[in-house]
């Protein structure tokens, strides 16, 4: 008498066990522009981590007699209106700018992923309820919703980060829900259900790994947008508070200096934001193309 043995869940084509595409290697998949973007992002992260070592001066300490000094041997990028070294403030500003954006991406990614998986797996009324809540949040632009939350709970980096993450959750959840819903209908999920695996197990072992490329792609792209929005909140005085070094705050504080003919602070900080956003956007775009190519 033969014993029936249930077949293991079918592996999705293009998954970890799928065939490899030509031109293996990260550099071949990202292309020259993608590799350059990764290098720039790595340099920014390294500069932020090593800011205490690389910064020649304390970022928050200045001197009135050293206001608006031009670039020179003592101050490579000059000084600001308070006599503070601009290079030191840019290095330390990278820490708040990158850390804040990373926190927004992580919080929004975790919250959006959980909502997407719950809505996909349970469907019906649960999916409809989550969809209505997301639609309600969609009615508010990201920055406006963040400003409302900050106005209620107070200003500061932590408040701005949480507020912006709440504004990013609907977008993350909506994109991941559509991807997870497509995965939910594939045969390998149905095979796992027939084996008696729970929804948590199927979602954790199968759905989550297969939507991971979209999660990473969205995280890389949202990182750049989060940097811009956090800089905007700091520019409006709702994010990082002085005298803490932050790129968005430096752009704001450099307005008066700009009108007086000293554009260095705003120009340098703004350039750092543009370079960082461009680098992470390119990385997200290339990761998105790689994920789409893996489905072929």
TrEMBL record:
One CC-aspect GO term: plasma membrane
CDD domains linked to this entry: TM_PBP2
Alphabetical list of InterPro entries matching this protein: BP-dependent_transpt_permease, MetI-like, MetI-like_sf
ABC transmembrane type-1 domain location: 94-284
Keywords recorded for this protein, A-Z: Cell membrane, Membrane, Transmembrane, Transmembrane helix, Transport
Composition-biased stretches (Low complexity): 1-14
Pfam family membership, one: BPD_transp_1
Membrane topology of this protein: Multi-pass membrane protein
Compartments where located: Cell membrane
SUPFAM superfamilies, A to Z: MetI-like
Protein family membership: Belongs to the binding-protein-dependent transport system permease family.
Protein name: Peptide/nickel transport system permease protein
């Amino acid at each position: 008498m033969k014993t029936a043995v249930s077949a293991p869940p079918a592996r999705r084509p293009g998954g970890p066990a799928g065939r490899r595409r030509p031109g293996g290697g990260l550099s071949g998949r990202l292309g020259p522009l993608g590799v350059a973007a990764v290098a720039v992002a790595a340099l920014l992260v390294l500069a932020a981590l090593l800011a205490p070592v690389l910064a020649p001066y304390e970022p928050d300490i200045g001197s009135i007699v050293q206001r608006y000094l031009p670039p020179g041997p003592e101050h490579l990028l000059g000084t600001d209106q308070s006599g503070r070294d601009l290079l030191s403030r840019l290095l330390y500003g990278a820490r708040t700018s990158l850390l804040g954006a990373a926190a927004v991406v992580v919080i929004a990614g975790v919250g959006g992923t959980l909502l997407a998986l719950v809505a996909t797996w349970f469907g019906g009324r649960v999916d409809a309820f989550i969809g209505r809540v997301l639609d309600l949040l969609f009615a508010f632009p990201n920055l406006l919703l963040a400003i409302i939350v900050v106005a209620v709970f107070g200003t500061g980096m932590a408040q701005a980060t949480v507020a912006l993450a709440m504004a990013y959750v609907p977008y993350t959840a909506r994109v991941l829900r559509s991807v997870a819903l497509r995965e939910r209908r594939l045969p390998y999920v149905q095979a796992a259900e027939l084996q008696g695996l729970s929804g948590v197990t199927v979602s954790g072992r199968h759905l989550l790994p297969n939507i991971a490329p979209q999660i990473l792609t969205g995280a890389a792209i949202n990182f750049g947008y989060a940097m811009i929005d956090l800089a905007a909140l700091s520019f409006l005085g709702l994010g990082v508070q002085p005298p803490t070094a932050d790129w968005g705050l430096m752009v704001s504080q450099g307005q008066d200096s700009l009108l007086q003919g000293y554009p260095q602070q705003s120009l340098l900080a703004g350039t750092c934001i543009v370079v960082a956003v461009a680098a992470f956007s390119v990385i997200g775009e290339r990761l998105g193309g790689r994920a789409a190519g893996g489905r072929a």
